[in-house]
Amino acid sequence: MRTARVALMLLAGLFVSCGTHQQSAIDPAGPQSENIAGLWWFFFWTLTSIFLAVMVFMLWTLTRRHRGIEQEPLEIRHAPSPETESRINRTVAGCTIATVVILFVLLIASVGTGKSVSELANKNNGLTVDVTGNEWWWHIRYQNSDASMVFDTANEIHIPVGRPVQIRGMSQDVIHSFWVPNLHGKRDLIPSHVTTEWIQADRPGIYRGQCAEFCGLQHAHMSVYVIAEPESKFQDWYNAQLEPAASPSTPVTQHGQQVFLNNACIFCHQIRGTTAGGQNGPDLTHFGSRMGIAANTVPNTKGNLGGWILDPQSMKPGNHMATIALPSTDLQPLIEYLESLK
Amino acid sequence: MTATQDIVPQTQNQAEDLENLNRVWRHPRGVLGWLSYTTHQAIGMRYIVTAFIMLLAGGIEALLIRTQLAHSNNTFLGPDHYNEIFTTHGTTMMFLFAVPMMEGMAIYLVPLMLGTRNVAFPRLNAFGYWMYLGGVLFLYWGVFTNAAPDMGWFAYTPLSGPQFTPGKRTDIWAQMITFTEVSAMCVAAEIIATVFKMRAPRMSLNRIPLYVWSMLIQSFMVLFAMPAIMIASSFLLSDRTVATHFVNPAEGGDPLLYQHIFWFFGHPEVYIIFIPALGFASAIVSANCRREVVGYTAMVLSQIANGFIAFGLWVHHMFATGLPQIGEAFFTASSMMIAITSGVQIFCWLATMWTGRIRLTTSMHFIYGFIAIFALGGMTGVILASVPLDLQAHDTFFVVGHFHYVLIGGAVFPLFGAFYHWFPKMTGRLMNETAGKLNFWVLFVGFNLTFFPMHILGLKGMTRRIYTYPPEMGWDQLNMLATIGAWIIAIGGLIFLANVFWGRRYGTVAGNNPWDAESLEWAAASPPKNYNFEYLPVVTSRAPLWVPPEDRTFVTGLRNDRREVLVTTLMDAEPHHRYVLPRPSIWPFLTGVAVTIGFIGSVFDAWYITFGSILTGICLIGWFWPSRPVELEP
Fold first, then answer.
1. A10 FRET partner, CA 20 to 30 A, in A36, A79, A126, A319?
2. Which residues from chain A sit within 8 angstroms of residue B291, using beta carbons?
3. Is B47 a domain residue?
4. Can you give the residue range of the structural domain that contains A208?
């Protein structure tokens, strides 16, 4: 029995150890994921005990095996007594009834959790964030009833700690799925449909998520960060995002801005406050403040940015960013300019 | 070998009867003759061998996938090849290995178990195989010409639509589905007609072997599930080739409609694969526990219930698309009900083992492995039925782990048990039991090493169908473990292949009934003659070969100078009339070629539909051309 207990603890340990990593369904950071994780552990322990009971019984049958088949004639058949038969039939029936009862309990627990998770959404002080899936990046729009307070960003969602946030999911092309496991389960983003999900973070932190519905060549490189901050810090970020892009202040960044505006960049990217208004790619107004490049495929550093602009296909084969041949005299200022867009 | 077999009635003209049977059921000679075979053993074996080759192909693809995922940022395969390979792996395993393999085993075994000479429509049977082969060749022609499908085996629109996957890859996939649909429908019709009308006299419905019950239920499921995928793939194909608007959102179609229709087929498909395997398990358990399976009625009823419930839970594949709460509760409850019907069967097998006297053969090893793995897969299935848990686990490696536990554990382990069990019947020789047990342990260890870590990876956030992942995710070690496991499974496969080739050559000669099992196939010769039984048996028990030999009776009075079989009544199998099966014919093959030309051509040019239909019409005229009365033909 002691070994069994040790084995059980090891088994549980395997699952718990997941908690230390950043993207995990059972390291909850919000009320939704906490409820779900609670349900998970209830299911886990119930089902593990049943499974072990079945296994013990199955291995027990081995002790009743027909030993020494070589010595006994092969055709000996076993006909248990009618009493044994009726006892075994009753046992089977009893096990079946137990199965039904256990499943009923699990069903009630599951539906109850589903209900309480969805009731967390019935709060009106929430933010609404539109998440639109694209091949292979996330378009993020902070909604507001006042149109001048609406702004766009990409691949990064900042939320205030303790406040429910409504995610409205849409898609520009194929089906994607928004999933930040530490906060909530996933919700598909379906073209010509709008789906909703409420998330909330109770602890400040950076929670990684990624697209969960296969969406083509770069499905693997389509991740999103949800950054939960205390209310005041969030407000600072929010107000900064509402501003148009900072005007370049040095000759180098001024040259960089001209490179951006005189090249194909403007067909896809928007930088508010300039003439660049493309809508096919991520908004770059405050690009310099973001954590990653190419839907967080790599960290946002000057080196990575240069590599990305010069040869997007080697970093993320198949993506839709155009390759633009820039002389290094233009590339360096462009990088400086984009990184200056805090 | 024992006193329980080889008892046949002594008639005056036995030698003449035998000679007639041998002549009438002889295979035609030559290459054209080989293409004309219509006996169920030959067609069944063709299915089994082709489907096994597909298992190897799907296995090689699995190894490529696992090798790519062995560590983070691996560049062994690029995204394009990776997508092609995982799509081809899923497609091959579902459509070209699992279903056809189960069908092939059934075509081989069902007539033998029912005590008849062939399936009900032998030419349709041959045609079904050629259709299946057409699908295999079409898909793999695509694979070797860089046109393998790359949108996942479920082909969700709009990703699979004309806008996002131009080219012919998806068309080839959708038309391959058409081939396998036709083939599966042919087999389903065969099995149902054979089981209902061609059973041995007095083998009433409550006496047919549990395996035959499982195939009967599976065939009905095929009849109801295949039209759904036919609609889904036709919507997709016509959206792609002639710009219709069914499921393409850019044209006002609805991508969720496609998902509903696809999973209305897709979920029953899983049970279409594993219900026959439950039948294998029952046959192996009763033969090796030396008693009939406990709870025949409960087993049959729970399998029928399985078949029905299978059609009521497809939405659990779509929980993440968002559903009203009452709908979620309904589909959670219906999904959990499967655990009840499956549980009953597991309890019955365990009770059989408990009260029987177990002979621990290789096939019995596979049954123990099956129960262990399948039970765990069932537990994770209950987890996935719960909407809140599914929203976390859906489309992650947790699901990959789950369905490999139920499909490999629930279908492939019993299938390997069945190979070891019926190999002597099919070839006349036994496989090596020691190597067989080694085979089991290697597969069992490799399997768990590969797929158990996937559950943990899924909870740690590893999503499905990603070709690589960054090192900081902490997924490296478990993935490496899974990859090592996959290579161990490959070694298990090689041991099996070696055992097959060794067994065919050097295995112990089996005799008719090496396991002293109870069902009728063990009364036939090993391997069976083309006519299966010299004298058709009469059945008075659920375990006909465990009836004392002196109490057995046989059918006499059938003509042996033509391919004559006995048709019996539906419920009680009372003899009704004699029926003459058609002779071998090249027309099923030619019709298969004509339909193949139409199907493949139509992907490239709509005119091929016309062209293929005309050719098919001509071939069908040849197929149904009336022949002279069959009186002692050469």
1. A36
2. 77-80
3. yes
4. 127-242
Q: Domain containing B610: what range?
A: 585-634
The first and second tokens of residue B550, run together, are 């002196």
Question: How large is the average pLDDT for residues B141-160?
Answer: 94
Which of A58, A87, A116 to mutate: most B Cβ within 10 Å? A58
> At residue A109, does pLDDT exceed 50?
yes
Distance from CA of B439 to the nearest CA of A (A): 20
Q: What percent of chain A has pLDDT over 90?
A: 75
Predicted model pTM: 0.93
Same domain? B435 vs B522: yes
- For residue B54, being part of any structural domain is answered with yes
Residue B35 is assigned to a structural domain of this protein: no
Inter-chain touch B356–A54, beta carbons under 8 Å: no
Average pLDDT over residues A313-321: 92
Distances (CA, A) of B620 to B121, B166, B580: 15, 35, 20
With a cut of 70, say whether residue B316 has pLDDT above it. Answer: yes
| Cβ-based contacts of B246 with chain A (< 8 Å) | none
pLDDT score recorded for residue B4: 39
Look at A186 and B156 and tell me if their CB atoms are within 8 Å: no
Question: Are B188 and B168 members of one domain?
Answer: yes
Does the beta-carbon distance from B461 to A23 stay under 8 Å? yes
Tell me whether residues A185 and B390 touch, CB distance under 8 A.
yes
Nearest chain A Cα distance for residue B385, angstroms: 9
Which tens digits make up the pLDDT trace of B457-503? 999 999 999 999 999 999 999 999 999 999 999 999 999 999 999 99
Instruction: Say yes or no: A160 and A180 in one domain.
Output: yes
DSSP state letters, A29-70: -SHHHHHHHHHHHHHHHHHHHHHHHHHHHHHHHHTT----TT
Which of B79, B321, B358 shows the shortest C-beta gap to A317? B79
Contact by Cβ (8 Å): B564, B579: yes
Number of domains in chain A: 2
**Domain co-membership, B479 together with B598:** no
Q: Is residue B630 part of a domain?
A: yes
Q: Which of A194, A210, A242 is the endpoint of a domain?
A: A242
Same domain, B576 and B601: no
A214 shares its domain with A263? no
Cα A129 from chain centroid (whole Å)? 16
Same domain, B569 and B631: no
Give B-chain residues touching A219 at CB under 8 angstroms: 463, 465-467
Give the A:B interface size as CB pairs under 8 Å: 268
Number of domains present in the structure of chain B: 2
Is the Cβ pair B387, A110 closer than 8 Å?
A: yes
The yes/no answer to whether this complex scores an ipTM above 0.90 is yes
Q: For residues B217-234, b (16+ Cβ closer than 10 Å) or e, as one string?
A: bbbbbbebbbebbbbbbb
Location of structure tokens 């149902």: B192
Please tell me the distance from the alpha carbon of residue B603 to that of residue B599, in angstroms, as a whole number.
Answer: 7
Structure tokens at B426: 């099919």
pLDDT tens-digit map of B416-454: 999 999 999 999 999 999 999 999 999 999 999 999 999
